[in-house]
């Protein structure tokens, strides 16, 4: 008979069930999930941690704006996206939806808080993280990031990048060292409430207004990412016109108001749909914390070599979003004239929903 052994860093895993072993809790039961087809990549997590993350996905999947997003929901996308992010060394985040074209700045306040919540957790997990946004909005985002550091939301400033299409290989040059697909600068790209390109090449807000003149072609990075082995993408949205929502475009066209025109055509590997996109960002931060404190996942991540990283738990805990942090950040956005998406109001609200007790309550539930 064949005998298997393993050396440090090389684990043997079988799908043959051993019924003789006594498993004490779901914390010790491993689950295997496919997180990439090319190259083929699986990850492992405990049944307990997986269930907690599925609960987060259910919490954020409510539809307070009554848009019909229930038809866009895809099960376990949060879990698989976060497993992939957990394996990443370097992550690029993009946000910015200039829906208020008649105002300056035209940005809405859904997106940046979620993006910074993800960035804060990635910093705590000692991953490289950068944000790419519109050249037009660089100064605004620089100020928001600086104030997020002062408020204690970020440990240090997040590098801010812009992307312009200068040639056919601009996206590849941006994403990879010397444009070499074998040497990507980022393992994972995350778009959260980022204006997404429709089938006709334009960018639309929910009211079917073309805002292409305000949007840089960051979608090209996601399209290029699909061609680079080892680069994975995630899109977070709440209406179907956001970057990454191309994966559910048929449902958007069928069930979302103006969906036939506004639906984003660009796909992401994973699509996280939330009632408010910021909630998706908070859920990603919380899910990354759950994975980091999962002994089964931690062991797999370090290939059973070295010691558990749980000594850093307090650092991770302090990076989680909180009602206090998010209230301060929303006040900062209001001071910079960044408005609520649905109403263009400069009140303490996001997508027309009051911070207290809608967003504050969601943050408390996720924690």
From TrEMBL:
<dbReference type="Pfam" id="PF14336">
    <property type="entry name" value="GLUCM-like_C"/>
</dbReference>
<dbReference type="InterPro" id="IPR025504">
    <property type="entry name" value="GLUCM_C"/>
</dbReference>
<dbReference type="GO" id="GO:0047820">
    <property type="term" value="F:D-glutamate cyclase activity"/>
</dbReference>
<feature type="domain" description="D-glutamate cyclase-like C-terminal">
    <location>
        <begin position="56"/>
        <end position="366"/>
    </location>
</feature>
<protein>
    <recommendedName>
        <fullName>D-glutamate cyclase-like C-terminal domain-containing protein</fullName>
    </recommendedName>
</protein>
<dbReference type="GO" id="GO:0006536">
    <property type="term" value="P:glutamate metabolic process"/>
</dbReference>
């Amino acid at each position: 008979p064949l005998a298997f052994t393993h050396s440090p860093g090389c684990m043997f895993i079988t799908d043959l069930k051993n019924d003789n072993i006594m498993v004490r809790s779901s914390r010790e039961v491993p689950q295997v999930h496919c997180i990439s087809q090319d190259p083929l990549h699986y990850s492992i997590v405990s049944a307990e941690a997986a269930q907690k993350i599925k609960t987060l996905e259910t919490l954020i999947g409510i539809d307070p704006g009554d848009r019909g997003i229930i038809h866009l929901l895809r099960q376990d996308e949060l879990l698989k996206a976060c497993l992939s992010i957990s394996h990443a060394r370097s992550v690029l985040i993009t946000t910015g939806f200039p829906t208020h074209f008649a105002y300056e700045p035209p940005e809405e306040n859904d997106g940046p808080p979620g993006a910074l919540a993800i960035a804060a957790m990635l910093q705590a997990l000692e991953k490289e993280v950068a944000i790419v946004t519109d050249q037009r909005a660089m100064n605004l985002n620089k100020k928001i990031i600086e104030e997020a550091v002062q408020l204690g939301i970020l440990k240090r400033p997040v590098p801010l990048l812009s992307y312009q299409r200068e040639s056919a290989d601009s996206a590849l040059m941006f994403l990879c060292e010397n444009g070499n697909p074998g040497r990507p600068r980022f393992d994972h790209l995350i778009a959260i409430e980022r204006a997404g390109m429709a089938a006709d090449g334009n960018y639309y807000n929910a009211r079917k207004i073309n805002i292409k003149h305000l949007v840089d072609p960051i979608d090209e990075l996601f399209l290029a990412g699909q061609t680079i082995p080892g680069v994975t993408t995630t899109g977070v949205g709440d209406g179907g016109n956001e970057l990454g929502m191309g994966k559910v475009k048929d449902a958007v066209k069928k069930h979302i108001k103006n969906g036939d025109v506004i639906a984003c055509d660009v796909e992401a590997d994973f699509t996280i749909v939330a009632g408010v996109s910021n909630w998706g960002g908070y859920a990603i931060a919380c899910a990354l914390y759950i994975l980091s404190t999962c002994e089964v996942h931690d062991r797999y991540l370090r290939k059973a070599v070295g010691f558990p990283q749980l000594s850093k738990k307090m650092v991770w805990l302090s990076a989680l979003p909180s009602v206090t942090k998010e209230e301060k950040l929303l006040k900062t956005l209001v001071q910079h004239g960044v408005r609520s998406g649905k109403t263009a109001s400069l009140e303490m609200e996001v997508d027309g929903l009051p911070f207290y007790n809608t967003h504050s309550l969601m943050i408390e539930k996720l924690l």
